[in-house]
Amino acid sequence: MSVKQGLLALLAEEPMYGARLRSEFEARTGGTWPLNIGQVYTTLARLERDGLVEPVGGPDVEGRISYRLTELGRTAADAWWRTPVDRDSTPRDELVIKLALAVTSPGVDVAAVVQTQRTATLTHLRDLTRLKASAPDEPNGHDLAWQLVLESLLFNGEAEVRWLDHVESTLARHVGMPLSPVPAPADLPDVAQPRISSRKGARA
Amino acid sequence: MSTSQHQTGTETRTTGPILVLTDVTRVHGSGQTEVVALAGASLSVNEGELVAVMGPSGSGKSTLLNLAGGLDKATSGAVEVSGIRLDSLDAKGLAALRRRSVGFVFQDLNLIPSLTAAENIGLPLELDGVSVRRARSQALDALGRLDLRELADRYPDQMSGGQQQRVAIARALVGERRLVLADEPTGALDSHTGEGVLRVLRQRCDAGAAGLLVTHEARHAAWADRVIFLRDGRIVDSTGGPDSADSLLAEAR
Questions:
Q1: I want to staple B139 with a disulfide (CB 3.0 to 4.6 A). Which of B104, B121, B176, B248 is the partner?
Q2: In terms of residue numbers, what domain contains B112?
């Protein structure tokens, strides 16, 4: 998620100065993605350079400069709501990489890796649920936003546990499958041998 | 709702355990056809605590719950409810303990269709010799604690699935009952309704009950203070809580 789009969305409501943008952003997302003020100012500078925002007059008595959207900026803000989030550029997931490496590395107890993660993820889910349980029953706008953020984190955690269950049952079905590393280039002629081909088959 | 949560943080957990399983094994059949449903499980659930049990099908979750509630007998090991060893009781004593100390909530078919909510809740008390009037007043108390007073005179088919499950929880904890054993209590409910049921269970545990919850859903297990993982009849891991994961792992080995 780019800070740029978030700031444009906030400025579409009314002009704001940097510190207010930062506090609005954090309040609306429940503090899940803290911004540092430097990030806000560099982003504003870049948005101004690209003609998406412009200062509203000069600094106020406290030296703060408010920014508002330009026409171009408004178009960009509107476009963001209409466009799906690009999933191809989703950051790499360390857990996926870890397990992919675990099943192909000799001497790694994959089941233990899975269980350790599941325990940790469930503990995390429990903490999120406690936060949710302490939220007010009749939320105002900001509470609602925070609840939705919490729910998103819960759904992600839940999906992770389901995936771990799946990994485990997949491994169980392939019990006895050699979990040796993929052959080094020098071993490539071995590829045609049964052991390797059954591995490939099992994966498909 | 929020007040019960505030209690969680400050609540003292010095009170004794309500449910204690010590090295409990359950074997079905013998010889060639022998199936070990539970293999040396140890676990305790204190007052004010909700413990979730997760694990693949066939891992022993339901066996654990049935043994805890005296619906099944351990092959070896001890099950204690409120300080009483279940294997020290005869059939009659066991039935009485189940009526007085343990409440069950299943996936469905919890309530008797021909009885109102209040009558359903009062039934275990009446079976135990409590007068109809007193049973009703305790049933109304139990409903009141769950903000369900208005359901008292409705029959199960006049209630939503979520309401029925919450009434089942009220019944599970009516009178002196302190232990609720729940087996997938949110089974057929949509996620919002299911969450309402879990909230009620959580709230009752915060108010001092002990709960053991079997579920396959991580988001439901997340309402518990700790989660126990079963695999092939063994407790293989647990999230933090009164029993640390390390001690449980040591026991499982």
A1: B121
A2: 2-252
* Contact by Cβ (8 Å): B158, B79: no
Note the ipTM here: 0.71
Chain B neighbors of A129, CB-CB under 8 A? 219, 222-223
Q: Give strand pairing partners of B238.
A: B228
Question: Model confidence over B106-119: pLDDT tens digits?
Answer: 887 789 999 999 99
What are the pLDDT digits (tens) for B54-96?
998 889 999 999 999 999 999 999 999 999 999 999 999 999 8
User: Is the Cβ pair A122, B8 closer than 8 Å?
Assistant: no
In this structure, are residues A44 and A53 in contact, taking their beta carbons and an 8 Å threshold? yes
Which ranges of chain A would DSSP assign to H, the alpha helix?
3-11, 18-28, 37-49, 71-82, 94-104, 110-133, 141-173, 194-203
Residue A86: count of CB within 10 angstroms of its CB: 7
Q: How many domains does chain B have?
A: 1
Non-local (6+) Cβ contacts of A41 within 8 A are A18
- Tell me whether A170 touches chain B (CB under 8 Å): no
Contact B219 A158 (CB under 8 A): yes
Residue B72 token pair: 């099944």
CATH code for the domain in which residue B83 is found = 3.40.50.300
Tell which residue, B189, B221, B200, has the closest CA to residue B61: B221
